[in-house]
Amino acid sequence: MLRGANAVAVGIVVGALLASRGPVAAQTATTTTAATTTTTTTLLPHPFSPATAACIHRARADFRSCRGGGGGAECAMAFQSAFPGCFGAGAGVSCAKKCVTKEATCLTSAPATRKTCRKACLKTNKADVRACQQIPDGDNLWAGGDAGCLTTAQANLDLCRFVCTEAVLDCHTALKFCIANCANL
Questions:
Q1: pLDDT tens figures, 45-85
Q2: CB 63 within 8 A of CB 75
């Protein structure tokens, strides 16, 4: 259960995270040196062609109906073999197969990744709390003194734990960006 100050800090952090999840746009970075200027853009995944989109929709619907019928691993295997066929012959199919394999590997390692991440969060939190305890009485380095420091440490821990729980989402996001480079039907 969160206490008053912790709940406020967590609310602020979560509010900022949710506010930042608005419409996604391409990210642009500009680098300037004495002689040249370079601009790079991270493009969003492109929309699929109508044929590819229809094929993916069918493959996902077949997967959902298979899972609804009580199928297990064979449903996932059927989807993993049907999905790459929704892309252009040759290089598109090969590219999509690589992307699906990477996602499967990522999803398999997600629980271990989450566990390692959470351990790192706890280790960092322990160091933060120890640092907060080193603040001398009357020192106003932190706006709220010890309480402000401990609130910040708790908010950092909560944010870190949230990031750890997103390991599976990271796998799905990586798939979207990977298949964006695969040729469509």
A1: 667 889 998 999 999 899 888 888 877 778 888 888 888 98
A2: yes
